[in-house]
Amino acid sequence: MVASQEARASRIGVDILERGGNAVDAAVAVGFALAVTLPRAGNLGGGGFMLVHLAALKKTIAIDYRETAPFDTPHDVFLDEGGRFVPERSQSTGLGVGVPGTVAGLAHAHAKYGSGRFSLSQLIAPAITLARDGFIVDDDLADSLPQALERLGRYPSTRAVFFRNETETKQRGDQLLQLDLAESLSQIAQQGPQAFYDGGVGSRVVAAVRAAGGRMTLEDLKSYRAIEREPLRGSFRGREVVAMPPPSSGGAHVIQLLNILEAYPLASLGHNSAQTIHLMAEAMKRAYADRAEFLGDPDFVVVPLRGLTSKAYAAQVRGELSSDRARPSADIRHGEPLAYESDQTTHYSIVDKDGNAVSNTYTLNFSYGLGLVAPGTGILLNNELDDFAAREGASNAYGMLGGEANAPASRKRPLSSMSPTILLRDGEVELVTGSPGGSRIITIVLQTILDVVEHGMNVAEAAASVRVHHQWQPDELRIERGLSLDTIRLLQAKGHSVRVAPTIGSVQSISRSGAWLMGASDPRQRGAATLGH
Ligand code: DON
Predict the structure, then answer these.
(1) If we measure between CA atoms, which residue out of 366, 372, 405, 370 comes closest to residue 388?
(2) Can you name the residues that pair with 479 across neighbouring β-strands?
């Protein structure tokens, strides 16, 4: 079964499974397909994180293919002469483009964990066909292109692909042909990832980044590596929670939040009751305060992961948490563990017949990334380096704060919130999940796990249920529409500043119980959970 945010891509993954591929083969095919069918988030020019669970070996691997800052990245790269953060630099120029990791990550997963029944080129083939033959613009593309018009319209190379004329993006019913992208994919299919990192495609990517004001070199591309890391592990109500380690903050804080919350009888307090939401929000504030202080690329800073994910630290945090009153964020500081708007990233979950699983989240950061198609390649480039903390006290596009641990540096990976997660029960895959949502990803994944494990929902109920979010700063409890007015009033009475805001997340989950699989693609978007036979 494949649950992804785009139906054609889900079908392509299922087709690989039906032809005898394993979950990793399918994940590689889906990853390349989404770069064609969901270009606002599926990508070759971005990066992400993949968890692979191998049932026979009872082993889970974390593949970090996050973008990396170019060698020439000074500490103050996003600041003006006066030391002020200029968001324009990280969000809208070539300086924000990180060295893309997706091609390396997918190729690495295929080479090490694929079934061996499919060559890389066979897994890329469906994506090439879709790019070369084109398809009719509908659903997500038709909605998301006009929203990104300003960013996309800046570049002639982007307009050539995504515009129907000088001023308008393609519309529902238009055909989208991506011939340059088909050619780039073919080169990767024929020559392997070196076509991207040390060949014609790579030189064009570098030229585009530099023309947009960035400092990336071919040397940066050549030295890019996907990195295998030890997944983080926690436990919750008899399940093992296997999650993404830094440079994503996702795993650390999903586990930390589950640890804090496991002492409360949330199920009997009630799903989305004011008391349950209050406890979640108070825990979330502390987790995001810790994130801002401690989290960064583990190859550059020591992240106190053991403390952050320990039950003892969670107990201490709980001790400071009032069950009646919201604590103002201004009073909350990080602890001592040593002792905005739409969903532009995308997640997919895959489980094969043998119980192998892949949980993958990848992104260009903004919808369509920087908006720049590298001329001659069809490849949209990311603006992921906005995830660095440009300076103390400056927030990025998702309102995230950070400090030295996540400061820009040469060849460093910016901190992420992406949280592909797998839950194991008695060593077997029980739940595979993840979501886009920028800073909200952590709390979305938290609530999905709580919905399923604590509140006994199935993955479809969990996908549809109302979500809430608090990220410490700004000090507001964000909720989706659908929470009852009396719940909102009770939360306000506890001192929460409640804001009803647009939908949160696009969760793609699969649950498994023996041979029984259930998939759910978030109803907020138009994906598909597709089952093979
Ligand atoms: O890595 C991160 O945390 C962000 N760049 C993810 C961006 C994202 O999820 C956009 N979707 N809303």
Answers:
(1) 405
(2) 468, 500
CA distances from 248 to 384, 420, 434 (A): 13, 10, 13
Helices 311-319, 250-261: inter-axial angle, 10-degree rounding: 60
What is the spatial distance between Cα 314 and Cα 79, in angstroms, rounded to a whole number?
A: 36
SS3 521: strand
Q: Is 345 labeled as catalytic in the residue annotation?
A: yes
- Which residues lie closer than 8 Å to 405 by C-beta, 6 or more apart? 293, 294, 295, 296, 301, 303, 415
Which tens digit of pLDDT belongs to each residue from 190-219?
A: 999 999 999 899 999 999 999 999 999 999
Q: Residues 352-366: what's their mean pLDDT?
A: 97
> CATH: 3.40.50.300, 2.40.340.10, 3.60.20.40, 3.30.930.10. Which one for 232-344+417-531?
3.60.20.40
Ligand 1 centroid, distance to 324 Cα (angstroms): 32
Q: Residue 532: count other Cβ atoms within 10 Å of its Cβ.
A: 17
* Mutation pick for ligand 1 pocket among 67, 344, 363, 382 (CB with most ligand atoms within 8 Å): 363
0.90 surpassed by pTM: yes
